Amino acid sequence: MPVLQPIVNIAELLVQQGITDVVVSPGSRSAPLTLAVARHPRLRVRVMADERSAGFVALGMAQQSRRAVAVICTSGSAVYNLAPAVVEAYFQQVPLLLLTADRPHEWLYQQDGQTIDQPRLFGAHVKRSYDLPADYTHADARWFIERSINEAILFSQQTPAGPVHVNVPLREPFYPAADEAFRYEPVRTIDWLRTEATLPAEIWHRLLTEWERSERTLIVVGQHPPDPALLTVLQQISDELGVPVVGEITSNLPRNDLFITQTDTLLAGLTPDVAEALRPNLLITLGNSVLTRNLKTFLRQYPARQHWHLTENPDRLTDAFQSLTTLIPVSPRLFLEKLFADLDYQRFLQGDDDDDSEGFAFRQHWQRADRQARRLVQQTVFGPDVPFTDWSATARVLEALPANSVLHLANSMPVRYANLCGVDARQQISVYANRGVSGIDGCLSTAVGAALQTDRLVTLLTGDVAFFYDRNALWSAPVPPNLRVVLLNNDSGHIFRMIDGPSRQPELETYFETPHGYTAQRTAADASLSYRACDNVDELASLLPDFFLPGDQAKLVEIKTDKLANQHQFATYKASF
């Protein structure tokens, strides 16, 4: 198929630009793209029949590898099925390269099958869209394709990373003749050199002056991938400069004696006096979205006089707490490392090792509140006569996680329960959750993608509605053997029983919770997953050690709980504030 040689060359260009993984959903119009990647010896290709799952599997793979993963699908409604994963990748800043086959545009609105208006289909939720020509005979068309693919791959990975869409109109014939050999021609690659932004000296000194004037500085970390170097400098700033550092389980700030991680509890039911005592003069934020409502509400109701937000190459202002005064467009890690080095050197010159300053007292105030909140959570899930609930089961699962493993948290209540419990710093757990737009639609698929991309054990903690909604993640065998699924099955959309609004409505069960009566036993059998079920704490404790052992088969444990017991436990916890 000589006329489609530029499409064959796309596979080679992916390889030359560092892409190693492609997720393909079967289709006829996309055959030239599929064959090009499937026959390339240096590409790993995963087939996912459901395009929605395919997008999320690619998302999970890209989260782990920190580089773009390509997704190929056929034309028509198949492309729209990528949309949930695309918007999640956009707001979570994860690089994806979407290669969508299309019909030549002259056939649009001509009652031809699988033909929709695909260029710019994803709108503002991709970093950029490209529409390739349907005819490749002219040299300029081949040059345009090569240049566009170079740009799309590079642009997807430029900070802030995100999805990029390349629409590929294709004419018949799609399939090579039996005697037609594939060849991958040399391609031209274009480098996009990375630079690090630095601040001019006068601006840097102005920021240092503002820092020194603040006796009560607070650092808040939103959702952030694991970053040991960032973690180190945050520990140094908190420990040696007396600054409280606040984060959540999705910030990858572990539970230790230094960081503040129990904000959902310690900021609940604050009196005005306590809130003022916790209020910073200077707030420094980094990372993406904040999970807990109480933290967001506190920072909005008690704004700092100065609020710096650190983000590299911002494409818009992010003012989540309605208090932003300064956007600092640099790498948060590099900024904080230089800040600590300069302040530490200044303290050395001045002989200032005073840990009794107001700044250290401010940190201690936050830490005392955090310890009290942690004790309350411990009593709620481990105290005498505590019933077997989703929350108490979550606490025991998190404590049993193998060291240096990966934890994926499904949305709705699982991510909230896990955040209330936290993970211990000694476990060195890497935590991920689809908190870009916080949907339940691809949580299982994302975890499958992560397990495909790493040799580490990957555990998904998920609720029943999220699990059954995304069962097609297990459709395309084999499921990676390093995947562990912990399914909290209370036979309902449990979160609606916890929210004040729907929980008071007589239509709660029918229109919000939607009980289903399903178990995962047959789903696990269909996907060849090892399956265990339990409904009490002793059974759970006995099966977890074997569940987390390595093996040649993915495993699922279904934890069955009573939704009324879950509701009562959570209501008792909230009443204790």
UniProtKB/TrEMBL annotation:
<feature type="domain" description="Thiamine pyrophosphate enzyme N-terminal TPP-binding">
    <location>
        <begin position="10"/>
        <end position="118"/>
    </location>
</feature>
<dbReference type="InterPro" id="IPR032264">
    <property type="entry name" value="MenD_middle"/>
</dbReference>
<comment type="pathway">
    <text>Quinol/quinone metabolism; menaquinone biosynthesis.</text>
</comment>
<dbReference type="GO" id="GO:0070204">
    <property type="term" value="F:2-succinyl-5-enolpyruvyl-6-hydroxy-3-cyclohexene-1-carboxylic-acid synthase activity"/>
</dbReference>
<keyword id="KW-0479">Metal-binding</keyword>
<keyword id="KW-0464">Manganese</keyword>
<keyword id="KW-0786">Thiamine pyrophosphate</keyword>
<dbReference type="GO" id="GO:0030976">
    <property type="term" value="F:thiamine pyrophosphate binding"/>
</dbReference>
<dbReference type="GO" id="GO:0000287">
    <property type="term" value="F:magnesium ion binding"/>
</dbReference>
<keyword id="KW-0808">Transferase</keyword>
<dbReference type="Pfam" id="PF16582">
    <property type="entry name" value="TPP_enzyme_M_2"/>
</dbReference>
<dbReference type="InterPro" id="IPR004433">
    <property type="entry name" value="MenaQ_synth_MenD"/>
</dbReference>
<dbReference type="GO" id="GO:0009234">
    <property type="term" value="P:menaquinone biosynthetic process"/>
</dbReference>
<comment type="subunit">
    <text>Homodimer.</text>
</comment>
<dbReference type="GO" id="GO:0030145">
    <property type="term" value="F:manganese ion binding"/>
</dbReference>
<protein>
    <recommendedName>
        <fullName>2-succinyl-5-enolpyruvyl-6-hydroxy-3-cyclohexene-1-carboxylate synthase</fullName>
        <ecNumber>2.2.1.9</ecNumber>
    </recommendedName>
</protein>
<dbReference type="InterPro" id="IPR029061">
    <property type="entry name" value="THDP-binding"/>
</dbReference>
<comment type="function">
    <text>Catalyzes the thiamine diphosphate-dependent decarboxylation of 2-oxoglutarate and the subsequent addition of the resulting succinic semialdehyde-thiamine pyrophosphate anion to isochorismate to yield 2-succinyl-5-enolpyruvyl-6-hydroxy-3-cyclohexene-1-carboxylate (SEPHCHC).</text>
</comment>
<comment type="similarity">
    <text>Belongs to the TPP enzyme family. MenD subfamily.</text>
</comment>
<feature type="domain" description="Menaquinone biosynthesis protein MenD middle">
    <location>
        <begin position="191"/>
        <end position="323"/>
    </location>
</feature>
<keyword id="KW-0460">Magnesium</keyword>
<dbReference type="InterPro" id="IPR012001">
    <property type="entry name" value="Thiamin_PyroP_enz_TPP-bd_dom"/>
</dbReference>
<keyword id="KW-0474">Menaquinone biosynthesis</keyword>
<dbReference type="Pfam" id="PF02776">
    <property type="entry name" value="TPP_enzyme_N"/>
</dbReference>
<comment type="pathway">
    <text>Quinol/quinone metabolism; 1,4-dihydroxy-2-naphthoate biosynthesis; 1,4-dihydroxy-2-naphthoate from chorismate: step 2/7.</text>
</comment>
